[in-house]
Amino acid sequence: MTSIKEFEMYYNEGRGWTGAFEQAIRKMEQEGGGTLVVPAGIYETFSIELKSNMTLYLESGVEIRFLQDWRGYKVVRSEFEGREEDLFMPCIYARMAENVTICGQGTLNGQGEYWWKNQGKLPYGRPYLVCFEHCSHVKVLDIKLINSPVWTVHPLYCEDVEIRGVTIRNPWNSPNTDGINPDGCRNVRIADCLVDVGDDCITLKSGTEDTPVKMPCENITITNCNMVHGHGGVVIGSEMSGGVRNVVITNCVFQDTDRGIRVKTRRGRGGSMESILVSNVIMDRVMCPFVFNMYYRCGMNGGNYKDKFAHDIDETTPVIRNIQIQNCMVTDARAAAGFFYGLPEMPVENVSISDCTIRMEEGAKGGYPGMMEDIPVMSQEGIYMRNAKNVRFRNVHVQNCRNQSRQEGPWNVDETVEYDEQ
After folding, report:
1. Torsion of CA 410, 414, 418, 419, to 10 degrees
2. Within a domain: residue 204?
3. Same-domain status, 223 and 368
4. What are phi and psi of 113, to 5 degrees?
5. Residues 239 and 131 in one domain
6. Of the candidates 140, 135, 142, which has an alpha carbon nearest to the alpha carbon of residue 185?
7. Is 13 helix (H, G, I), strand (E, B) or coil?
8. What is the span of the domain harbouring residue 395?
9. How many domains does the chain have?
10. If both were cysteines, with which of 63, 127, 293, 342 could 347 make a disulfide (CB 3.0 to 4.6 Å apart)?
C-alpha cells in the first residue's frame, strides 16, 4: 500500500494535491498497480485519473474536495446523454482500465455549486463526479459522494460493475445530478445504497439515435436501496437505442420521488426495453408509482412527441415489453396510480402487475405523470392506459381514487383492479 502523504513534497512544489495524486498514480502504474491510501484530512485537487489494478482507499475522516475552477481541468472526448462531445475530465476517472476500486469511509465532494451556477457559461460540459469508461471489473464501495457537478456515478460501456453501500447526496434542486447511471454496461450490481439527488436516482441508459456505437445495458440488479427526492426512483431511458434488458429491481424504498418506476422513450430512438422484474418495493409520497411513456419529449429531437397517428414500424421504432411488477406498496401517491402510454403502431406489451396496494393522497395536488402537456393534469386518478396490449392486473388495490381506470384507444387488458371509492 502507498499513502498519498508520501508524495506531499509535490504539494509543497506548488501543484497542490493534484501533483501529489498524479505522482503517486504514476509510480503505482509503473509498479503494476496497488492501493493508494488517503489518510484523514481535507484534500483539494483537480481530477484524479486511476489506472488498471488500482484501489483508491479513503480512510474515515477524509474529504476530497474538487476545485472550483474550470481552467484546472483537462478535457476528454466522451458522451453525455448519448451525444459524443468534449467534457471536463470527471473528478475521479478511469478509461480503458480493469480492476479499479474506490472504497473506504471517506467523502468525495464535487463542490457542484460552482458548476450549477455557471452551466451554459462553460466552454465544455460539466464533469461527472465518478466515471469509468470502457472499463471492466470496477467497484465503488461504502464511500459518500456529495454535491456532484452533474451525474454522480457514471459507468459508461463497462462490464462487471459493483456499486455497494454508497451514500449519494446532492441538493434536491441541483440540475442533472443523477445518482447512478450505468450506460451501455453489462453485469451491474447496485446494492445497499442511499441516493438522495436532484434528478433521477438510478437510471439505466444505452445511447440515442445519435450515439456512434450503441451498446445494450443488460444484466442489471438493483437491491436494498433507498431513493429520495429524485425525479424518478429507478428510471429506464430515455436513452435506450442500444436496448435495456434483464433487469431486477427488488427490496427498495422510494420517498418523495416524482415518479417511482419510470420507463421513457420516443419515436426515433429504436431499441427495446424488456425482461424487467420489479418486486417488494415501497413508495411513499410519489406523484405516480408506475410510468411507461413512449412519448417522452425532453432532450434532442423531441419536438414531434405530440403526433398520435400511427407510423410505419422500422428500426427506429422503440419497444417496451415483458415487464413484471409484484408485491409493491404505495402510500400517498398524487397524480395517478399508473400511467401507460404506448405508440399506436407499437403498444406497451406484456405487462403484469400483481399483489400491489396503491393509496392515493386525499386532496392531492395534480401533476403530469408522463410529462405530456397535451394530457390534462391528473389528481387521484386510477390507472391511465392508452395503446397497451396484454396487460394483466391481479390483486391490485387502489384506494382514495377519484376516477377509476381509463383505457383509451387500442388496448387489450385483463383487468382485476379493485377500487375503493373516495
Report:
1. 0
2. no
3. yes
4. -55, -40
5. no
6. 135
7. helix
8. 216-422
9. 2
10. 342
* pLDDT, one tens digit for every residue, the chain (422 residues): 999 999 988 876 657 899 999 999 999 999 999 999 999 999 999 999 999 999 999 999 999 999 999 999 999 999 999 999 999 999 999 999 999 999 999 999 999 999 999 998 999 999 999 999 999 999 999 999 999 999 999 999 999 999 999 999 999 999 999 999 999 999 999 999 999 999 999 999 999 999 989 999 999 999 999 999 999 999 999 999 999 999 999 999 999 999 999 999 999 999 999 999 999 999 999 999 999 999 998 766 655 567 889 999 999 999 999 999 999 999 999 999 999 999 999 999 999 999 999 999 999 988 988 877 788 899 999 999 999 999 999 999 999 988 765 555 444 455 556 655 44
Its pTM surpasses 0.85: yes
Question: What CA–CA distances, in Å, run from 122 to 30, 88, 127, 318?
Answer: 35, 10, 11, 34
**208 part of a folded domain:** no
- Reference 285, options 376, 364, 397; nearest CA is 364
**Domain check: are 194 and 232 in the same one?**
no
**What letter represents residue 297's amino acid?**
R
| Triad 157, 153, 149: Cα angle to 5° | 120
CATH code for the domain of 415: 2.160.20.10
Q: Same domain for 160 and 308? A: no
Other Cβ atoms within 10 Å of 53 Cβ, number: 18
Cβ atoms of residues 53 and 98 within 8 Å: yes
Residues, the chain? 422
